């Protein structure tokens, strides 16, 4: 728990520096480049297939970071960044400006609303808002905010309205270490303490969080 708190403090201490960095993506240029993204993510970034994430309304800085790390995953043979058999290949031909333009475009699109099943509300809200002190699990809200909107400056993603199937898959990947591009290992540390039931409940809860 102390490690997580320290990591978060270190990360947030960089916000004043990051806030001075302008994001110079061109949304109109990104729209013209987004045709190849539509097959998985839909024409407006709201993926119709739940194994793929909704990227509409996601923070541009976060999308840009993930695209760069997908490309790095391929160029490093999986030793660095984020390796994915589909996305790493898709990111390979993209220039830095392409990534910024695509990120700016999808960030401007509205994310479609989701739902939370009644059975996940009570337990999901408890885990999301308060965590579990006995197991050393901090609240998700501490980084992702009360409405799951995250924050662009710290590159914490918007996770509300996301497909539960995608959220579940990513938490499982953080837990088993197959995804390791989280800042200071925070998501890996937290996910390692989550049970299968925790992950299922959180994934369903986030689908309709607003």
UniProtKB/TrEMBL annotation:
Residues 25-110, 119-210 form the Cytochrome c domain. Heme c 2 binds at residues 140, 143-144, 187. It comes from Pseudoalteromonas luteoviolacea CPMOR-1. Its main location: periplasm. InterPro entries: Cyt_c-like_dom (IPR009056), Cyt_c-like_dom_sf (IPR036909), Cytochrome_c4-like (IPR024167), Cytochrome_c_Oxidase_Subunit (IPR050597). Binds 2 heme c groups covalently per subunit. Residues 1-22 form the signal peptide. Coiled coil: none annotated. GO terms for molecular function: electron transfer activity; heme binding; iron ion binding. Heme c 1 binds at residues 37, 40-41, 87. This is Cytochrome C. SUPFAM superfamilies: Cytochrome c. Keywords: Electron transport, Heme, Iron, Metal-binding, Periplasm, Signal, Transport. Gene3D superfamilies: Cytochrome c-like domain (1.10.760.10). It is found in: Periplasm. GO terms for cellular component: periplasmic space. Pfam families: Cytochrom_C.
């Amino acid at each position: 728990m102390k490690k997580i708190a320290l990591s978060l403090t270190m990360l947030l201490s960089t916000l004043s520096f990051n806030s001075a960095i302008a994001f110079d993506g061109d949304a109109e240029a990104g729209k013209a480049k987004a045709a190849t993204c539509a097959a998985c993510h839909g024409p407006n970034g709201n993926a119709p297939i739940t194994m793929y994430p909704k990227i509409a309304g996601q923070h541009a800085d976060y999308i840009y970071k993930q695209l760069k790390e997908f490309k790095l995953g391929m160029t490093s043979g999986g030793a660095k960044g984020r390796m994915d058999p589909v996305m790493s290949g898709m990111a390979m031909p993209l220039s830095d400006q392409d990534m910024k333009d695509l990120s700016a475009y999808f960030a401007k699109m509205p994310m479609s609303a989701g739902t939370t099943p009644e059975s996940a509300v009570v337990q999901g809200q408890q885990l999301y808002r308060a965590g579990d002190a006995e197991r050393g699990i901090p609240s998700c809200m501490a980084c992702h905010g009360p409405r799951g909107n995250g924050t662009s400056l710290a590159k914490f993603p918007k996770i509300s309205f996301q497909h539960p199937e995608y959220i579940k898959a990513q938490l499982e990947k953080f837990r088993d270490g197959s995804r390791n591009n989280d800042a200071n290992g925070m998501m890996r540390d937290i996910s390692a303490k989550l049970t299968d039931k925790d992950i299922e409940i959180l994934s369903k809860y986030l689908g309709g969080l607003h």
